[in-house]
Amino acid sequence: MELRHLRYFAALAEELSFTRAAEKVHVTQSTLSHQIKQLEDELGQPLFSRIGKRVVITEAGELLLAGVTRGLREIDNGVRSLKATPGQRQGTLKIGSTYTFNVKFVPSSVAAFLRRYPAVSVTVLELPVDEVEEQLDQEKIDLGIAYRPALRPGFMFEPLYIDEMVLAVGLDHPFAARKRMRLVELHRQELVMQTKSSDTRHILDSNFKSIGAEPIIVAEMNGAAPMISLVQELNIGAIVSKHFAKLFPNVRFIPLESPTPLRTAGILSKSNRPKSLAFYSFVSEIRNAIIEANMHVRKTGHGTSVPLPFAWESDDAINCDPIDSFR
């Protein structure tokens, strides 16, 4: 089956006349009839009934027509978009992002995208990861930027980089002067943690279980920023992304090891939903941003190295990239 078979089929379905359909697609009537016969033979069932000089589409033809019409429209739109210059490309793009990425990463990627495609309308929604999945499922957004969730059927996740999690404590906390800590040292220590339903919490619970440690969980929150705010108010700790070291100068962020809590950031989308050119162009901008910032996950013969998205701020608690120290 080739694209021309589908175009001929769509033309005949619209005209219900071999003569008019042949004129529409600029072929002879015999050529059109032969191509339709080839398509019917390949599909194993008739798509049209010939009743005298009348042409009637069959039930199988009706079922095929809906998908073919939609597919040809997507192909034609894509071809037109590719022929247009970047500044002429139009359309809409709706992005769902969790808070961590919406601080800097997503805005920077959107800015780079709009510099190339100023006519595209972009909407960014800040959402928890379960809401990102829900809105993707309802096709209210085109893609999500989040940490890897437990994927539902019909979803795709493209890994971008691996994110290291660290201990956040206030300046007066007993651990504030530490350069690094083993995760087991948090046994029976008071922490504010992510809510039990979050995928990050599942990762941390598994890490603690693997070393036989049980922290005292004094509160649960579904966002890193309020967790860090609570850390500043109380003499407790929180395990959050390393990225927040730049945003909270009055909090100490301490690398954790044995094991180091890690999670994978990436692009979430629906596998069976048609993707627009704006979708692919924005994803390309994200990949470029990852490469330029040296965040991409590099495969080596000795395992996987874990470059991080932003360098540590230079301060008393953090003066080197902990990953380099752990290798």
Automatic annotation (TrEMBL):
Q: Which family does it belong to?
A: Belongs to the LysR transcriptional regulatory family.
Q: What is this protein called?
A: Transcriptional regulator, LysR family
Keywords of this entry: DNA-binding, Transcription, Transcription regulation
Supply the InterPro entries for this chain.
LysR_HTH_N, LysR_subst-bd, WH-like_DNA-bd_sf, WH_DNA-bd_sf
Which stretches make up the HTH lysR-type domain? 1-58
User: Per the record's keyword annotation, is Transcription included, yes or no?
Assistant: yes
A single Gene Ontology CC annotation of this entry is:
protein-DNA complex
Give the organism, scientific name: Bradyrhizobium erythrophlei
The task this protein performs is described as: NodD regulates the expression of the nodABCFE genes which encode other nodulation proteins. NodD is also a negative regulator of its own expression. Binds flavonoids as inducers.
Q: Which PANTHER family match?
A: HTH-TYPE TRANSCRIPTIONAL REGULATOR CYNR, TRANSCRIPTIONAL DUAL REGULATOR HCAR-RELATED
Q: Does Signal show up as a keyword for this record? A: no
Give an example GO molecular function. Answer: DNA binding
